[in-house]
Amino acid sequence: MKWTKEADELISIKEYTATELALKLGTTPHAVYQRRSKLGIKFWKETKPIRGYTSKWPRSLKHLKKWVLERDNYECAYCGGLADQVDHVIPLRHNGSNYPQNLVAACARCNAIKGTSCATCPEWRQLIDIPPQT
Question: Hey, is 23 helix, strand or coil?
């Protein structure tokens, strides 16, 4: 599609979604996103860092962390002790995610021993003295 000045002006209106613009222009939403990017139009508001905010978890994930701890009754998934941290079963380093299915409550000791290993790796399990999951 040839992008005209009128199409660019329509794309620069942030009230329209990419799907609505795609229907009006007769193109795909992906093409609209690409054109917005080329024009330098941001898709989200820029946020300034909050002074005094030091948590390693983003604000949206802080609630998720609390929810995971409550879901697991503050019990470590690996040793059964008191959990105060949240651990990724499949670490982000190994293409894990921040979805609740991939998060478990863990105590600081188990979380440190596990590090970036996967939950099924036997090496770190021997250090915690727990049997491997089947």
Answer: helix
CATH classification number, 59-128, choose in 3.40.50.720, 2.115.10.20, 1.10.30.50, 2.60.120.430: 1.10.30.50
Q: Output the pTM of the full model.
A: 0.49
Torsion-angle region of 63 (φ positive above 0: left; ψ -120 to 50: alpha; else: beta): alpha
Residue extents of the structural domains in the chain: 5-39, 59-128
Is 68 buried (19+), middle (13-18) or exposed (0-12) by CB count in 10 A?
Answer: buried
Give me the count of residues in the chain: 134
pLDDT in tens, the chain (134 residues): 677 888 888 878 777 777 888 888 888 888 887 887 788 776 555 556 666 656 555 566 778 888 889 889 999 988 888 999 998 888 888 888 888 888 899 999 888 888 877 766 666 666 666 544 54
Tokens coding 45: 């508001």
Whole-angstrom distance, CA of residue 103 vs CA of residue 86: 6
